[in-house]
Design a protein that fits this description.
There is one protein chain. By secondary structure, this protein is an all-alpha fold. It has two domains: 38 residues; 197 residues, Orthogonal Bundle (MetI-like fold), CATH 1.10.3720.10. The protein is 83% helix and 0% strand. The protein starts with a helix and ends with a helix.
Length: 252
Amino acid sequence: MRTHPQIFAPLYGLTTIVLALVVAQGLILAEVISPYIVPLPTDIIISLWRMVAEEGIIGRFLVTAGETLAAGLLILVVGIPIGLLLYRFTRLRMAFEPWLAGWAAAPLVLAYPLFLVLFGRSSLTIIVIGFASGVAPVALKTIEGFASTRSVLVNVGRSFRLTPAQEFRQILLPSALAQIFVGLRLGLIFCLINIVGVEFLINLGGLGHLINELSERYDLSGTYAAICFVVFVSVIFFVILDRCETWLRHRG
């Protein structure tokens, strides 16, 4: 009985999505929803194959994935050290944490003209915007994870005369790992959203560029199919990070 939710939860979610699509199909056929605004779900599903066969969506996905991976690596190597630094030094944390929270909430995609001036119309601009949009959540959740470590665990470690490196590796990091991965999930999702958004705005890159082209051709079903593909990619990123967290926990 304990495994029941783990086995059937994905099935429940999939069933809900299918029912929603069936209801949408009926409403569009009954013209309650205009087909000039929302295409039939069956047309969207058919267009997914067309995106693969004719529009090269896999190659465009690889472009977006490469940009997201590059930005994600920058987020990882910069965001976590910043969070650790602000956790270690209270004054720095008091001074900069509110600014970091404001940075995380800011719609940085609106500043893309500035990034274009600084870095040019290239993949570098897209990567930098993706990094800028995702680094703050990672840093904030890193601070939260280390700060939420129970003091009794730290005191026990000190009673055993652990070195700072041992204390970090055996107490602080395992305690903060869950929150760090929450930050990584948020950071990567923000990163992916902004990368696709900037690709759309400057008409350069992978999936965002494809959505822009389809919308300009008024290929409604294709546009929705490409958007659904982006949502699917976001889900895959989330699942991969969840598996990585589980693997690290088991190794710990």
